[in-house]
Write a structure and sequence with these properties.
With 91 residues, this protein is an all-alpha fold. The chain has a domain of 53 residues. Helix content is 54%, strand content 0%. α1 packs antiparallel against α2. The longest helix has 32 residues.
């Protein structure tokens, strides 16, 4: 019986490994501010490719966090309004 060599891809010596993501901000406003800064840096086009990927992943995390916070607030408002979300009057 012959043994086959492993074909698993392993990082090369010295290859960059993505650092762990920092914790999400505690507030919606904090997450939104970080997301806006991140988008501005990405749109400026000055990030190297590997940093662009990490930034995109962080942006996706922040976006999901913001959406979850908004949905939670909407659910609370619905409960306060007896299950019906009423139109918002700005006047």
């Amino acid at each position: 019986m012959s043994k086959k060599a492993s074909t698993a891809v392993t990082p090369e010596a010295g290859a960059d490994i993505a650092p762990p993501m920092p914790p999400l901000p505690e507030t919606y406003e904090g997450a939104l501010a970080e997301l806006e800064q991140l988008v501005a840096r990405m749109e400026a086009g000055a990030l190297p490719l590997d940093q662009l990927l990490v930034s995109y992943q962080r942006g996706a995390q922040l976006l999901a966090h913001c959406r979850a916070r908004l949905e939670a607030v909407e659910a609370q408002v619905k409960r306060l309004e007896d299950g019906q979300l009423k139109p918002w009057d700005v006047a």
